[in-house]
Amino acid sequence: MRYSQTFVPTLKETPAEADVVSHRLMLRAGYIRKLTAGVYTYLPFGLAAIRKVERIVREEMNRAGAQELLMPMVQPADLWRETGRYEKYGPELLRFKDRHDRESCLGPTHEEVITDLVRGEVRSYRQLPLNLYQIQSKFRDEIRPRFGLMRGREFIMKDAYSFDVDDEQASVSYQKMYAAYQRIFTRCGLQFRAVEADSGSIGGSFSHEFMVLAKTGEDTLVVCKSCDYAANVEKAAINALSVENQDPMLDLEKVETPGKRKVTAVCDFLGIGADKLVKTLVYKVTGGDGQPVAVLVRGDREVQEVKLKNLLGAADLELAEDKEVFDITGVPTGYLGPIGLTIKVVADHEVAAMRNFVVGAGEKNYHLRHVNMGRDFEVAAIADLRQIADDDPCPHCGGKLGQIEGIEVGHIFKLGTVYSAAMRAVFQDQDGQEKPMIMGCYGIGVSRIVAAAIEQNHDENGIIFPVAIAPSQVIILNLGLKDAVITEAAELLYTQLQAQGVEVLLDDRDERPGAKFKDADLLGIPFRVTVGARLGKEGVVEIRHRRDGLTVELVPDQVALYLLNQIAVAGSAVQER
Ligand code: ATP
Ligand code: MG
User: Fold this and answer.
1) Ligand 1 centre and the CA of 189: distance in Å?
2) With 90 as the cut, is the pLDDT of residue 432 above it?
3) Each residue of 83-134: pLDDT tens digit?
């Protein structure tokens, strides 16, 4: 490619609307342009990087035995009604009617469509296992599209779906995908971690997320410093205390706490630590039984809403505001407690192990002391409901935990029969018995990977693409357009490298050297070959590695071999990691 004829509209100024580095750099490097909120055009070089990722994804999916197909983006609402998701999915699902008034939606994911296909074609265990995937644009009407390709409304995803005869085989399929994902992200040159995850609105029983480690991550991961436990904070498990609390129960006591509504104010007033108080929080619930619920957690803890949502089988939750709490319970906020509450109460299991704690008295300006669960009140459920804290031990080995930020680039789920049962995707097993297929689904955010790679690989001058996903491997700068010797050498190198299968961009623009150096850095192309005045004087060209700034000088004849070696080294290094 010749730069003079390539559409790479780089920007000198930093675009104001972009607040994360990958978004800024992709705009500045001329890789993407915004059409409307969360919807982008992928320009030639942006698309080239995306295609590189797609190719790696394809190769590894095929290697793992999955087969590529392409499903429609427009989907009939009735199919989604079969699983109840037309109602349940929420406003991220873009619903519309066609000219015949038929309700439809734009695919945010394809479980319904693939299950419909497979139930129509697969009859016997002999046709299983099956793993089918596609790489396609998805549409999700995200409430807060942001960070460019990181959270778009339209974005490119690889989604795969496996169908198996039994749970054991489904686990084999899951493991194959787990391994394929490890290879994919490794080959993309990313530093990542697989973590235990919540299975979210897709449902199912088991899942892992693949997280690229980067400061701009929207996700927080909990990782053990001693063993290999890692989980999304939404999921990070906290074990119940194994030793029963033997403290004697003291007599219940009502104390006046005038105007003390906040945990700290009550605790200061009573001269106790927040770990001796239990908060009562009221949530409004959508889905599940739709009834408001009161949640009990220790005074210094936070409710983990995803855990609560899962316990209640709710679609959504919202903490009730003061006025709503009063409407629901008749108690002013700050004085709420579990005793005498008429709505459902659930408790974090840490509370179950507490003795003689403080709660609101259910009456303005009063709290209760020496409260004990079981003796003074009952709850509908005791579960792990709180957010993990810094001092919590690892649920696997008891070691120390730490928290890091990450960007979710892939997500694998064991679905079980959630979809196949609802949609009657059944097969005849060896004994002639009809059984629902056991499913799994596996997503990769292809366009998000490019953004995540930039978050992880950049400096103040621009992008530093991993070689495997760079839009071009090499850029040649011709710094002497009017100098016959320089131009001839640059052109010759350009043809030689191309002949060897190297991807090259030749900067043949009539620009100052400074501008060419700047753009080469901004674009993030791994190897830069500068052909300039030193060719005439010393007979050498300069090769510079974008990542570490390493430079070597070579006579033009040695350049192709050197670069081929470097590209191979970069490839094998990530294969081995
Ligand atoms: P998130 O929690 O980030 O919203 P999700 O759980 O909704 O993700 P999945 O339904 O598992 O995501 O989708 C599979 C993959 O698609 C994700 O791992 C992510 O990499 C990518 N992805 C999801 N939503 C978006 C989006 N709005 N923009 C870009 N990529 C996305
Ligand atoms: Mg989402």
Assistant:
1) 20
2) yes
3) 999 988 889 999 999 999 999 999 999 999 999 999 999 999 999 999 999 9
Secondary structure tally for the chain: helices H, strands E: 16, 31
- When the pLDDT of each residue in the chain is averaged and rounded to a whole number, the result is 94
Give yes or no for a cis peptide into 129 (omega within 30° of 0).
yes
d(CA 470, CA 3): 16
Cβ of 231 less than 6 Å from ligand 1 = no
Q: What is the CATH number of the domain that holds 540?
A: 3.40.50.800
The parent domain of residue 363 ranges over 253-383
- Residues forming a β-bridge with 96: 104
Determine whether the shortest distance from the Cβ of 138 to ligand 1 is under 6 A.
no
Q: What is the CATH number of the domain that holds 371?
A: 3.90.960.10
313 plus 450 within the same structural domain = no
Counting the structural domains of the chain, the total is 3
287 pLDDT more than 90:
no
Query: For residue 373, is pLDDT > 60?
Result: yes
Question: Does 20 share its domain with 118?
Answer: yes
What separation in Å is there between the alpha carbon of 413 and the centre of ligand 1? 13
Measured from the CB, is residue 292 less than 6 Å from ligand 1? no
How would you class 187 by CB atoms within 10 Å of its CB: exposed for 0-12, middle for 13-18, buried for 19 or more?
A: buried
The closest-lying atom of ligand 1 relative to the alpha carbon of residue 159 is: 14
Give the ligand whose atoms come closest to the C-alpha of residue 208.
1
**Do residues 264 and 324 both lie within one domain?**
yes
Banded model confidence at residue 203, pLDDT cuts 50, 70, 90 = very low
Is residue 110 within 8 A of residue 71, CB to CB? The reply is: yes
User: Smallest Cα–Cα separation from 356: which of 445, 461, 272?
Assistant: 272
- The verdict on the CB of residue 359 being under 6 Å from ligand 1 is no
pLDDT at 506 over 50: yes
Reported as a single tens digit per residue, the pLDDT across 376-429 is 999 999 999 999 988 889 888 889 998 889 999 999 999 999 999 999 999 999
Mutate to test the pocket of ligand 1, among 188, 199, 408 (most ligand atoms within 8 A of CB): 408
**274 and 154 part of one domain:** no
* CA-nearest residue, atom 3 of ligand 1: 408
Examine the domain organization and report whether 125 and 208 are in the same domain: yes
Does residue 319 lie within any of the structural domains?
yes
Nearest CA to ligand 1 atom 4: 151
> Given a cut of 60, is residue 305 above it in pLDDT?
yes
- Clarify whether residues 64 and 193 are in a common domain: yes
From the CB of 155, is ligand 1 less than 6 Å away?
Answer: yes
**Rounded-to-integer distance, Cα 414 and Cα 412, Å:** 7
pLDDT band at 204 (very low <50, low <70, confident <90, very high): very low
Q: Please check whether residues 166 and 20 belong to one and the same domain.
A: yes
pTM, two decimal places: 0.86
Q: What span, in angstroms and rounded, lies between the C-alpha atoms of 556 and 541?
A: 6
Please check whether residues 406 and 536 belong to one and the same domain.
no
**271: in domain:** yes
- For ligand 2, the distance from its centroid to the CA atom of residue 249, given in whole angstroms, is 46
Ligand nearest to the CA of 451: 1
Q: Is residue 538 part of a domain?
A: yes
